[in-house]
Fold this sequence. Notes:
Number of strands: 2
Number of domains: 1
Oligomer: single chain
CATH class: Alpha Beta
Amino acid sequence: MDLDKAIYSGLYATFFYMKHAFPYLKEAKGSVINFASGAGISGKPGQSSYAAAKEGIRGLSRVAANEWACSLPATTRNMLPETLVHRCIRSEANSV
């Protein structure tokens, strides 16, 4: 996968979604669940751009959780971003 494509469609898309959704989520006490991948954890050959984008999403979620916690009352901190990491989903990106 092309690095620009992976970063723009994965990491940048997640960043801008979270940035623009936060005020509405804050008001509605909504939450964010981002998706990462085991590819970044296991370092699978041939998936460097995909893994980089997904690991970026994991880092972005951790930073956002800390930043958002500072601007939320303690009773609404259940809306902080979480990241799910999948490991064994077959797709065109990981087929050999």
